[in-house]
Amino acid sequence: MHAENPYCKRYDLNRLAAHYADLKNYLVLNPAGEATIDFGSSKAVYALNKAILLADFNVTDYHLPQGYLIPPIPGRLDYLLYIRDFVSEKLGMDVDAEFRGLDIGTGANGIYCILGAQYFKWSMIGSECDAKAIGIVKANIQATKTLEDRVQVRHQTNKSFLFKGIIQSGEQFDFTVCNPPFHSTKEEAQRGSRRKLNNLEGTSNTDELKLNFEGQANELWCNGGEALFIKRLIKESVLFKDQVRVFTSLVAKTDNLPKIEKQLKKAKADYHIVPMDQGNKTSRIILWWFDSETE
User: Fold this and answer.
1) Beta strands, E only, the chain
2) What integer pLDDT is reported at residue 105 of this predicted model?
3) Between 20 and 30 A from 92 (CA), which of 134, 157, 169, 185?
4) Which residues contact residue 33 at a Cβ distance below 8 angstroms, ignoring those fewer than 6 apart?
């Protein structure tokens, strides 16, 4: 994890539970006798991440209905820390400067907007095509005054576009973030969930814990999966290269990198890849930009 990520070490679960008492209901002991939670339980994972938001990010309240993706905050914060480092170095900006960011597909959890606003004091815009998800994330933003001041959520009414209709004329952004749908079909998403469940030891009832890996359709899968979604991002980013300094996306599947790099070269974009390791999970960030002399 990033050296500045405050969650590099074990969670202080007792401290977190003091901010959200419901977390106490999910504390268990691991074989070494240390307090932990059942990471296969959606309710336990939700309680942990809500406690983190309340304890460490000055969020007044937070609610995420069952069936939406539960954001693992340490990994999401890692993404933003790496973006901060890269953008500040590339643009010669102070790391403590107030960046302006755009989250493509902010979802019901709105986690990148919340972390960007509360941890970094950035100005954030979140885009989302699901009207119900927008209602959920707006309610969470309105619950915390500082979020209301720094975060705006916009409805993408045309699913054919990602940036178009969201980035307005004359607007400027320092960066964009995106956690693209991972799978290409619902069946593929279900197979992936089963693999994750099988890799977890000591989990609780399967019918309950599987919700930890569920989400609404546009959160988990799309036609063409991750690779095609990122290729769409790259193609459309060319139209907004004068309004965004650095475009970024998570890339979960290593096998997708050659396709993505090919599209970046076709778009005549410069790019950089940042590896991310979090526990047993390996991912990476792809960052791309268009220099002024690039035609």
Assistant:
1) 27-29, 35-37, 100-104, 123-128, 151-155, 173-178, 244-251, 270-278, 281-289
2) 94
3) 169
4) none
